[in-house]
Design a protein that fits this description.
247 residues; mainly alpha
Length: 247
C-alpha cells in the first residue's frame, strides 16, 4: 500500500469523525440518550442509531466503489424532510413524556408512547369496523426501541449526503482499485463510529450526572427537545444549509 492510499485512509477516518458530529446526528443521539428511563438503555439506542447509519454508509460507499456513482440529487431532496420529521417526532415525544411525567425525574420511552398510540388508534379503527375495540390503554409495553433507533439511523444516512459523505464517495470511486476503495469506505465508517460513540458517551455521562437533580435534568431534557425540534423544522423546510459548519 503506497503513501497516497495510506494518506487517503487517514483522511477518510478524519472525515468520518467530522461527519459524526453533524447537526442531525447530535440532535438524534442526545434525544435518544436523554429520553430514556434507563440511561444505559439510551446509550444502547444511540448505538443502534449508529449501526443503522453506518450500514447505509457501507452500502452507498460500496456502490460508489463498484459503480462510480452516488445517490441522485432527488433522493437527497426527498429524504432531507424525512430526517427532519424523525427529529421532530423524537422531540415531540420527549416533550410529551416531560409533560406526562411532570412529577418524576425520569421519563417514559418515546417509542413506547408512540407504539401505545398506534395500538390504540388501531384498536379504535378495528372496534369501529369489526366491533373489537378494547378501549384506551396507556400501560401497553411494546419494546421496539432498538428497531426504531436503527430505522432512524438508516433514514439519516440516506437523507443527509453532506459534503463529508460526498467527499468520501468521490474519493472511494476514484481510487481505481476495488480493495483500496472498500478500505477507504470502512475507514470512514470507523471514524464515524468512534465519533458517534464518543458523542453517546458524553450524553450518557452528562445525563447521568444531572439525573440526581430533578430541576436540572428536566431543564436539560427540555433544551434537548427544543434543539431537536428546531433542527427538524430546518430539515423539513430544506433550510439545513442555514446551519453554520461546526468545523
Amino acid at each position: 500500500m503506497d503513501n497516497a492510499i495510506f494518506g487517503l485512509i487517514l483522511l477518510s477516518v478524519f472525515l468520518g469523525l467530522r461527519h459524526g458530529i453533524d447537526w442531525d446526528h447530535i440532535a438524534a443521539i442526545t434525544d435518544l440518550v436523554g429520553g430514556e428511563k434507563d440511561q444505559k438503555k439510551g446509550f444502547i439506542l444511540a448505538f443502534w442509531y449508529a449501526m443503522g447509519h453506518e450500514v447505509v454508509i457501507i452500502v452507498l460507499g460500496g456502490m460508489a466503489v463498484l459503480f462510480g456513482s452516488t445517490l441522485p440529487s432527488w433522493v437527497d431532496n426527498v429524504m432531507e424532510p424525512v430526517v427532519g420529521v424523525t427529529l421532530i417526532i423524537l422531540a415531540s415525544f420527549l416533550l410529551l413524556s416531560l409533560y406526562k411525567n411532570s412529577q418524576e425525574i425520569i421519563m417514559v420511552s418515546r417509542w413506547r408512547i408512540l407504539f401505545t398510540g398506534f395500538y390504540n388508534l388501531f384498536a379504535l379503527l378495528t372496534g369501529r369496523y369489526f366491533g373489537k375495540y378494547r378501549g384506551f390503554d396507556s400501560s401497553i409495553n411494546i419494546n421496539v426501541s432498538r428497531t426504531g433507533s436503527f430505522a432512524i439511523g438508516i433514514a439519516h444516512g440516506i437523507g443527509a449526503e453532506t459534503p463529508t459523505q460526498l467527499m468520501l464517495f468521490t474519493a472511494a470511486s476514484s481510487v481505481g482499485h476495488l480493495d483500496h476503495g472498500i478500505i477507504v469506505v470502512l475507514a470512514f465508517v470507523v471514524g464515524l463510529l468512534i465519533s458517534h460513540t464518543l458523542l453517546a458517551l458524553a450524553c450518557y455521562f452528562g445525563f447521568t450526572r444531572i439525573l440526581k437533580n430533578k430541576k436540572a435534568f428536566r431543564s436539560f431534557a427540555f433544551a434537548t427537545a427544543i434543539y431537536s425540534l428546531g433542527m427538524g423544522i430546518l430539515y423539513v423546510f430544506g433550510e439545513s444549509s442555514f446551519l453554520p459548519a461546526i468545523f
